[in-house]
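REQUEST FORM: STRUCTURE PREDICTION
Request ID: SP-0412
Submitted by: Lab K.M.
Chain count: 1
Length (residues): 163
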Amino acid sequence: MEDGQPRRMMTSILDIRERPPHDGGMTSKLDKKDRSERDRGISRAYHLDFWPGMAGYAVVLTAVLLWGDLDGSSPWRFLWAVLPVIPALWMVRAVLRHVRRIDDYQRFLLLQSLGGGFAVAMVASVTVGFLEIAGLGLTGMGWIVYGAGMLGWIATGAVVGRQ
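STATUS: Completed
RESULT:
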């Protein structure tokens, strides 16, 4: 009689025993939001693959901007201009290896976010193309398309990750 109600007596094995109310605590490790040891290992492997490429990109890009003479007239300026692509390819390798490591659901979410970024980049590309046809000749339009695609990837990733 803790709550003022008389306690029911069990008279048969068919009677249902009243249980105390559940305290709302977690009952299973599946209910936790923590990442598993496998997920942490996959993330660690991705970072070990990705960040050396990013560091190499930063070093090469700095060298290109300091000594590449991209505004000059030397034919070597074209080689200097594409030199940052080499460490960028290392980052592509890291992403592809990451895609092979993650599970199907994570791959599905990544595919959705990449698809969203690709769609945004294509719309930006068509928009830039039409503006160029109309006579708007701005330099660096490729960077606008690239930036739009990356922002689309990030935004779509945030949206699908919340679902």
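NOTES: The mean pLDDT is 86.
Reviewed by: T.R.
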